[in-house]
Amino acid sequence: MAESNLHAMRMGPGKHLHGKTLYGGVVKPEEFDYFHEMVINQELARVQARGYGDGFQAGTVIGLPPVLNYANPTLKKEIVDACFSGKKNISLAISEAFVGSDVAGMRTRAVKSEDGKYYTINGAKKWITGGMHAHYFTVGTKTDKGLTVFLVPRQEGVETRPIKTAYSAAAGTAYVTFKDVGFGLVFETMQRDAR
Ligand SMILES: Cc1cc2nc3c(=O)[nH]c(=O)nc-3n(C[C@H](O)[C@H](O)[C@H](O)COP(=O)(O)OP(=O)(O)OC[C@H]3O[C@@H](n4cnc5c(N)ncnc54)[C@H](O)[C@@H]3O)c2cc1C
Fold it and tell me: Are strands 146-153 and 109-112 parallel, antiparallel or unpaired?
């Protein structure tokens, strides 16, 4: 999938495809559109095993776009290349046990240190697709500025536990906890104030 640039195509049309040979050259990167993306999704569905299909980077499909769109260029290149190569996975961690649709009500907190140099994240996220095998997490938090998204690499203080779902464990659905996870300000590039 990585060799045919399928992982990159699953992010939809855009500059991230430029310079790549897509599926042996069947479509030019600048001509790739949402119809082609739909064909990919339909072909993945034809496997008729949703957990298995979701195990193929479904977490990355929803976790990577914030990095693709908002991370600084150095960080973006590192994470995006790693995920497109299939060597690393990233998950989107927004939902919480009591907060699904009501995203604004999330309780995970990121608190800035007194010297303003880093944040400390505490909280828990539920139903995180691909979380069991994710190397990075795109994490929704509350800060004193409102809603802020952080890119969190798996590290000490980040714990993932499997959640039993109605489909397959292959999807890696996880309960993810963040306990006193600290970050330098470089990750603040992804901050967006709550509207
Ligand atoms: C298999 C699976 C994978 C998932 N993967 C991820 C993931 O990777 N990352 C992640 O962050 N989350 C993930 N989720 C969580 C998912 O995003 C939430 O389940 C979803 O947002 C719904 O939230 P909830 O389950 O708390 O339901 P609730 O928000 O409690 O909703 C319950 C019901 O109430 C309705 N409802 C809610 N609010 C309103 C309203 N204001 N007006 C009218 N009706 C309303 C809903 O339509 C629904 O029918 C996953 C969930 C599943 C099942």
Answer: unpaired
Domain, as residue range, for 102: 90-190
Q: Whose CA is nearest to atom 20 of ligand 1?
A: 100
Rounded distance, CA 96 to CA 93, Å? 8
Say if ligand 1 is within 6 A of residue 160 CB.
no
Q: How many Å lie between the centroid of ligand 1 and the Cα of residue 146?
A: 21
The total of structural domains in the chain comes to 2
44: number of Cβ within 10 Å = 18
> What is the pLDDT, as a whole number, of residue 184?
59
The pLDDT value given to residue 162: 97
Q: Is the pLDDT of residue 181 over 70?
A: yes
Residue 118 lies in a domain: yes
**How far is ligand 1, taken at its centre, from the CA of residue 116, in Å?**
34
For 166, other C-beta atoms within 10 Å of its C-beta total: 6
- 97/176 same-domain check: yes
